[in-house]
Write a structure and sequence with these properties.
Order of helices and strands: EEEEEE
Largest sheet: 6 strands, mixed
Number of helices: 0
Distance between the termini: 38 Å
Radius of gyration: 12 Å
Number of strands: 6
Shape: globular
Number of domains: 1
Structural class: mainly beta
Strand content: over 45%
Amino acid sequence: MCLSTAYIDSGKEKKELMKDVARMEADANGFSLFDLFGEKTFVRGKIKSIDFVEEHSVVFEDTSAGAGS
């Protein structure tokens, strides 16, 4: 079974948010990520890319004030 890894890209660096992401839910403020054990991480931002084949990754673009500057 291949699960995804989530990253946040600030423009200067790509930082790992969570490994073994099994589920993702969107709401108006961002995304809730859940791993196999139900642990939850919330991320504000928008999806920059998703790779289902090679890296099994989701990259979020950091949209917080001052990100990447």
